[in-house]
Amino acid sequence: MRSWSDDMPRADHVGSLLRPPALQAARAARDDDDIDADALHAAEDDAIANAVRLQKDIGLASITDGEFRRGYWHYDFLAGLRGIALERIKQDGPLTAGFVHRHRIKVHGPIGWQPHPFVDDFLKLAASAGPRARQTIPSPSVVHFRLGQQALQSGAYIDLDTLLADLADAYGKAVKAFADAGCRYLQLDEVNLAMLCDPAQIAEAGKRGVWRDDLATVYAELINTIIRDRPPGMRIGMHLCRGNFRSTWIAQGGYEPIADLLFNNIDIDTYFMEYDTERAGDFSPLRFLPKGHKVVVLGIVSSKTGEIEDKGTVKRRIEEAARYAPLNQLALSPQCGFASTEEGNDLNEAQQWEKLRLCVSTAREIWP
Description:
It contains 12 helices and 8 strands. The chain is an alpha/beta fold and 368 residues long. Strand 7, helix 11 and strand 8 form a beta-alpha-beta unit. Helix 1 packs antiparallel against helix 2, helix 5 crosses helix 6 and helix 6 runs parallel beside helix 9.
């Protein structure tokens, strides 16, 4: 009997791609009101059509729109929910190399689902990518972990348990909306579970007033709740990350503190796991992966630098990971997207596509 892992793409990517220069210029022109929304959408359509073609040509089995219609991996989706707003931050000078965004989000009222542009964006992608189309959205934990205290201070909520309940309801409806649109591969960018492997991030969460001893379990239950009613055949992926904005990072620490819960308490099919540096620890937490359909996509190739990895080294690392988890439950990808925000990471498009070709060619040799 074939398992889900038998049909799992062996070479994948996390989702975001470097914005082509023409699209960057169009977005800048739109920000300056030099072009209208229709002109920007046309530029996005052209860039996405080319990105879809290149992903197909390379041989990637799942295809995204590169997140070309977004400025951020998280803000754009969250701002489309009822009760959350996106605000422009006034900058006194150019963006620096730190964690500086041009916008911020705020909770200003009860959070809920409402007709969302991302559903229409997926339909446009699926029209060209077909069943290989994959949708990426931020995990609901992002709101609690980063905005929980702000939601209380704004008066939108009187306690964080109510916030979690509203997030579960809104995201449950989001999953249904994407499923109804034909999405069969939905990815949650769940960065905060990885953050809980870093004592420094736990301390910061305590300062923000959102830390609790069972926080990882709370997030696991939240994810299970929102995907509970997904239709048969809809694969749910989860990406874990320690920061990627403009090739930087904010957290470190191996997966050991959450590995058992991650693999055995969360009803996820595919785990995109960062493994490009020592900050992510070794492969030993993979021993908790249960035998069956679940797949770990090893993020061995780096999206942060333009240096092309040696294929032999990549193969050896996959072999090392296979000491802890069955090889037929492993796959390969870059450790994160190439552009968590529209500014992108410190490499060029040619290097980006070469890294994706490396993933595909390596996977074909390991899983022929």
